[in-house]
Amino acid sequence: MRESTAAGVVLASGAGTRVGAALNKVYLPVAGRRVVAWSLDAFAAAPGTGVLVLVIRPEDAPLAEEVVAELPVPVEIVAGGPTRQASELNALRHLAPRIADGTVDSVLLHDGARPLVKPELISAVLERTREDGGAVPGLAADDVVSMAGPDTVAGPLPGAIRVQTPQGFRARPLLAAYEQAAAEGFLGTDTASCMERFSTLPVRWVPGSAENVKITYPHDLAVAERFLLR
Ligand SMILES: C[C@](O)(CO)[C@H](O)COP(=O)(O)O
């Protein structure tokens, strides 16, 4: 019988303009390494993700090569597209032969800009993905989350959670959903938004981590550095 594994897909093909740096934010240094090196390392340490893919902007290829050369496991580099949706699709098409033959049974997609993800969270998402088909990490909001009008609030959104990555899905329905989304020109905010629209898989949530911050603004780098050096 053929062995199946999960694939970790780390997305590093965004522009990251909000951080205000000349360099793609995932290659900025934090706690002595580049941001994306921390993210990839967590996947390398997680049991069960036997395939690792890094999705890049072609112009970042020399930096990406430098990062993957220092990792303890092989990383497959794939060129991203103009949107997150297109980059995810490129990664899934790259994996398509292994998805078709069952070698890759699940795919976990992760923001390269979340360097504090822990192998334990990756494992929790993978376990729930294998059980139910789809899983994301979520954090209950500490503050009230309200719908905002132009200058008023329209009441709390009950049960709101903050969604993080990695987001995991069974590989075959994931690829099928992304192909259908591409045919219909759909642009999602994250993997779950595409799956909610184009698949019948439930998207479960597992407890995320307050430390699993996303580098979006300059101050996020300082926060991440403090956590990583601890
Ligand atoms: C996927 C995500 O991390 C969920 O919170 C988030 O949507 C990514 O946002 P970005 O603007 O693409 O960094």
From TrEMBL:
Keywords: Nucleotidyltransferase, Transferase. Pfam families: IspD (PF01128). It comes from Amycolatopsis echigonensis. CDD domains: CDP-ME_synthetase (cd02516). Gene3D superfamilies: Spore Coat Polysaccharide Biosynthesis Protein SpsA, Chain A. The keyword Nucleotidyltransferase applies. This is 2-C-methyl-D-erythritol 4-phosphate cytidylyltransferase. InterPro entries: IspD/TarI (IPR034683), IspD/TarI_cytidylyltransf_bact (IPR050088), Nucleotide-diphossugar_trans (IPR029044). GO terms for molecular function: 2-C-methyl-D-erythritol 4-phosphate cytidylyltransferase activity. The keyword Transferase applies.
